[in-house]
Write a structure and sequence with these properties.
- The structure is a single chain.
- The chain is α/β, with parallel strands linked by helices.
- Helix content is 43%, strand content 16%.
- It has a 5-stranded parallel sheet, sandwiched between helices.
- Helix 1 (2-21) runs antiparallel to helix 2 (28-36), helix 3 crosses helix 14 (336-355) and helix 4 (103-116) runs parallel beside helix 5.
- 48% of the residues are buried.
Length: 421
Amino acid sequence: MSGDRTRKEFERREVLEFVGALGLLSLAAPIRARAASSSKKQYGPGASDTEIKIGNIMPYSGPVSAYAAIGKIEDAYFKLINDQGGVNGRKISFISYDDAYSPPKTFEQARKLVEDDNVLLVFNSLGTPTNSAIHSYMNQKKVPQLFVATGATKWNDPKHFPWTMGWQPSYQAEGRIYAKYILKEKPNGKIAILYQDDDYGKDYVKGLKDGLGSKAGAMVVGEQAYQTTEPVVDSEVVRLQATGADVFFNVATPKFAAQAIVKVSDIGWKPLHILNNVSASIGSVLKPAGFDHAQGIVSAAYMKDPTDAQWKSAPDMVAWNSFMDKHMPGSDKTDANFVYGYSVARTMIQVLQQCGDDLTRENIMAQAAHLTNYEPGLLLPGIAINTSPTDFAPIEQLQLMKFEGQSWQLFGDVMSGQSEG
């Protein structure tokens, strides 16, 4: 018993130190009070003895509606948790709104969730430009903007934005990994880049150029930005081919990534084709584009591909398949968004379990910042979630893969894309 008390006191001190480190000194007194009376339940807005309100914003319509699968499986998973008795006896009320990937709409929906619905937190809202629109608002309101569904580097800034945390690897880190591969395979290559004209696209481009180092200026021979309001990106691809590039970096969301894959094939361009991870889904990108057009494309992964036979008997994949059959019948299991949504939802449940009876917004962030070698399932071997009060980047490793036949084939080692500078 004395050992348990010592451990609990240490954990309370860690939480207290974390809050102080984030400059939230006004919160220190309530946390000390909780430490002195650990049996007392503590609730923030949206939490009670029976309920935990979680807000979410997804593009159920609009140019990136392929990502709607994420919100759908999160809703199904939380319903399963409720059917099993909830989290520490509390049922989850998952309130998910559509923003059509429009930043003004995102802000409107965030205000509705925070000020009208009084949610405890906003979880896994999707998109870089959309989350950027609510970044300051969520931090001013001191409402967790937790495990955002975007790999922008800016989400890992606990000093200035202590209420925002990412989940997936950063786009810059991924870009640096591709740079390492290009320098090995085509050290004198000419690179053409298609990218979405926002922080998401620019983060990938920066990561690639940083990874190329002094060779970036000579190797990058063409860049074409597109807007999500454009119907197609065909003309951008044609202009990039005209540069004479033999490497094509496809930094696009699913709809436009698929268009680019088709156009590259149609015009007879045969570059080393690198596709960003956010559009590596077989179900929502490669299958619509046509497997014959996608052969040899290189990407990177941090999660298991449900179409990869080597994971068929893995316990986490067996559990995921069972969940899909029972709770998402008829859904396309080749869509990697269902894998992503399932795993991030499990991470959210882990944080809530760690919170125990202290369901305040402050403790949500404190527990999210104390995940150690957590494996929610479906991450590649060698990859686990780790956070700390000074590191809000839960996943920081990826492995390269090549599309062959009708599936991705992993190759090489699990790599970190962290900056060496």
